[in-house]
Amino acid sequence: MRSLKEMLLASSWARELSENQLRSVIDGITVRTIPTGGYVCMKGEPVEYWMGVLDGLVKMASIWSTGKATSFLGLSTGGWFGEGSLLKDEPRKYDVIALRETRVAYMNRATFQWLHDNSIHFNRFLLIQLNERLGQFIGMMEHERLLDTDSRLARCLASLYNPVLYPESNLEIRISQEEIGLLAGISRQRVNQALRKLEDAGLLQIDYGSITILDLPGLRCFGE
Description:
Residues 147-217 form the HTH crp-type domain. This is Transcriptional regulator, Crp/Fnr family. The protein is α+β, with helices and mostly antiparallel strands. It has helices at residues 4-9, 19-27, 83-88, 109-118, 120-146, 149-158, 177-184, 188-200, 216-220, and strands at 29-34, 39-41, 49-55, 57-63, 69-76, 80-81, 95-98, 102-108, 172-173, 204-207, 210-213. It has two domains: 4-119, Sandwich (Jelly Rolls); 147-220, Winged helix-like DNA-binding domain superfamily/Winged helix DNA-binding domain (Arc Repressor Mutant, subunit A, Orthogonal Bundle), CATH 1.10.10. 42% of the residues lie in helices and 24% in strands. The model has no long low-confidence stretch (mean pLDDT 90).
C-alpha cells in the first residue's frame, strides 16, 4: 500500500514544491477508505475538498430523485478531481461512488487555495486538467450520440488511460466486467459481448478480474 507522499510525488504539480511546502500540503490532506458502493462525495453538498484517488476506482455519476441514474466517467489511481466546483464555489453537481474499496485523498479548501495563490506549476496543472476534462466530456457526448454500444464501451475503457488525467495508469487494469458495466452504463451481459468483440479485433486481452490493452490507439478509434 503506497503512501500519500508517494502519490503526490507522482503528480506533476507536487514535484515542483519544496520539501517544506510538500509537508504543508500533506498536513492539509486527510486520507479516507471508501467501501465498495460508498460515496466519495455527494451531489448538492458544499464543496470543501479537492480529491485524488490514492488507489482504487470510482465513477462520477448523477442520480436523480426519480431514481434514474447516469454515469459520466471513471476515475482511476492517480487522478484528481473536483477543482471546477472549488473554483466556482458552488454546491457539487455530481456524485462520486467507489466501484471497489478505494483510498481517497481529501485536500481541504485552504490548502487548495494556498496552492492556487502561490504555485505557478499548480495553476498550469489546473489549466491543463480543466482543458483535458472538457475535451473528455465533449468526446463522451459525441460517442453517446454517434456510436454503437461496442464502440462506446471501447471509448470508456480508453478513457481510463489518459496520461494527463491518470498519469499512473498502465495497460493492464484490474477491473471486473461488472465494474465496466457500471462505468459504461450497460449490463454485465452486454459488457461480456462487447469485450469478446474487442478481443477478437486484437485490441485487448481478457483475464479473470483484469484487462490488458494491446492496441490503445485502435481502442480509441474503434467503430469509426
